[in-house]
Design a protein that fits this description.
The complex is a heterodimer of chains A (365) and B (103).
Chain A (H helix, E strand, L loop, with lengths): L10 H27 L11 E7 L2 E6 L6 E2 L2 E4 L17 H7 L4 E5 L12 H20 L4 E6 L1 H12 L5 E7 L10 H4 L20 H9 L5 H11 L4 H15 L6 H13 L7 E4 L2 E4 L6 E7 L7 H4 L2 H4 L6 E6 L10 H17 L2 E2 L1
Parallel strand pairs in A: 4-5, 4-6, 6-7, 7-10, 10-11
Antiparallel strand pairs in A: 1-2, 2-5, 3-12, 8-9
Chain B lengths: L6 H21 L2 H31 L5 H30 L8
Classes of the chains: A alpha/beta (365), B mainly alpha (103).
Chain lengths: 365, 103
């Protein structure tokens, strides 16, 4: 055999490779047409569920699925800035589905899409009005006195304030996923609303809320050219139905933001960003002062190491601020901000670790 | 970067990072955020001035302007919200659910 002729020139291999390339080209063409036409979009948030409580736009969903072997129930509090289906993106790649299949009783508190009616919603409204009622419904439906409360992103702030600010919280476990505490570490995400730049009222639209487009622009400007790399990677993998499905699901979610209620946005800017008040461990809420150290339950501070929306330095102070120091644990996960809900890294690391921690801190029903 | 990626893709990804990094640095700079703040303020002022003129013209003809409709919608929203709150309070009184519990 001539050592100068590479083994890849073996006619059998060449034919096989040619066949594969032709097949892939055909599939690329088919999937390309589907992508451009916008057909064959994957189902999003598809885990079967029942609406067990509703007030205004807010809904509490209880997921159906395997036998519920563990208690208390897990109630996920979603963020105010994005759609909750990121945590149930598509079958086979969903935190909610994973937890449900593991035997947990999973609920999701979804805030819906705010409009004029919600412009006056402030933090007090979420912490002292919606959360107590939604959690009372979760307790009633599940038949358990306590809950495992899991907040994602700003939902984590709401969950922490609830667990710290109410004697009747009955929180067994408090899981904070990518929950910002130190807003000086939030970088470009909050740069536009720092002291001396835009005032909150200058960002509100005619409905009294921050428009969904403005929220999208904020996220888009974190990495404005990444879309080029994503589209190129899509082109290379367009033959792969699963890749295309995942890409479409993520692309849909990343453009699908919701308006931010005006009153809560004013508090976010004045208290959380400009005063960085959570770092004092204490925040005024209604007519009282909430001390974060009073948060009930075992606290799990989960963060993603490559999160560019809520970077780890913004999340780390949870470990010194929230809950009983003897009951705090930290979980560092590979991946970015969405690793809590979807992606290969989520399937391999996030979902098993989060679910395992909850099961370890639950009872067998 | 995975080794099995074709050359063209590796080139695109490399170019994207080469171009993208300085762009990201620029749009994350203080100068950029100051510029966006100023632009937003100017746009709102110009929009507000134009709206004022059109409102006066429409009012001269005894017609409602967009801002009138907007105010009306906001008032309606407040009223609807108050109604919802009252309905909830009545429902909760009926169910006799505990409503306090704040620390």
């Amino acid at each position: 055999m001539n050592p100068l002729i590479p083994s890849t020139l073996n006619p059998g291999d060449l034919l096989q490779r040619l066949n594969r390339d032709v097949e892939r080209s055909v599939l690329r063409a088919r999937n390309g047409i589907r992508y451009v036409r916008g057909t064959h979009r994957p189902p999003l948030g598809a885990t079967p569920k029942d609406v067990v409580w509703k007030s205004g736009k807010a809904e509490l969903w209880r997921y159906k699925g395997g036998d519920r072997r563990y208690s208390p129930p897990v109630v996920i509090v979603h963020s105010l800035v994005s759609r909750s289906y990121i945590l149930d993106l598509r079958p086979g790649n969903s935190l909610v589905e994973y937890m449900t299949n593991a035997g947990l009783d999973v609920f999701m508190l979804d805030w819906g899409v705010p409009d004029e009616l919600d412009a006056d919603n402030d933090l007090e409204r979420y912490v002292d009005w919606y959360l107590p009622r939604a959690l009372a419904a979760a307790r009633r439906v599940s038949g358990h006195d306590e809950v495992t409360l899991a907040g994602y992103c700003l939902g984590g702030v709401l969950a922490a304030l609830y667990a710290a600010g109410r004697e009747d919280a009955h929180v067994r476990n408090l899981i904070l996923m990518a929950t910002p505490m130190d807003y000086t570490e939030m970088g470009a995400m909050v740069a536009l609303i720092r002291e001396g730049r835009l005032n909150p009222d200058e960002m509100l639209d005619e409905t009294g809320n921050v428009a969904a487009d403005a929220m999208y622009s904020g996220f888009y400007m974190l990495a404005p050219t990444t879309e080029v790399a994503q589209k190129a990677t899509l082109l290379e993998n367009l033959w792969n139905d699963e890749f295309l499905e995942g890409f479409q699901a993520m692309a849909t979610w990343s453009r699908d933001h919701v308006p931010f209620p005006g009153a809560a946005f004013r508090q976010l800017v004045e208290l959380l960003v400009r005063q960085n008040i959570l770092m004092t461990g204490s925040i005024p809420l209604g007519d009282r002062q909430v001390e974060l150290v009073n948060a009930q339950g075992n606290v799990l501070n989960a963060m993603a190491e490559r999160d560019n929306v809520v970077p780890p330095p913004a999340v780390e102070p949870v470990m010194t601020l929230v809950g009983d120091p003897a009951r705090r644990e930290e979980l560092r996960l590979p991946g970015g901000h969405v690793t809590f809900g979807t992606g290969r890294s989520a399937l391999k690391h996030t979902m098993p670790k989060l679910t395992g921690w909850i099961i370890d801190h639950s009872d067998t029903s | 970067m995975p080794a099995n990626q074709p050359l063209w893709l590796r080139v695109v990804l490399k170019v994207e990072r080469t171009v993208g990094e300085p762009i990201e640095a620029a749009v994350h700079s203080d100068a950029y955020f100051d510029l966006v703040s100023t632009t937003t303020r100017v746009r709102r002022k110009v929009g507000g001035a134009a709206e004022g003129v059109s409102r006066r013209c429409l009012h001269l003809l005894n017609l409602p302007a967009g801002s009138d409709i907007r105010r009306l919608r906001q008032q309606l929203a407040r009223m609807e919200r108050r109604l919802n709150e009252l309905s909830h309070e009545v429902a909760e009184l009926d169910e006799s659910e505990p409503r306090s519990g704040v620390r």
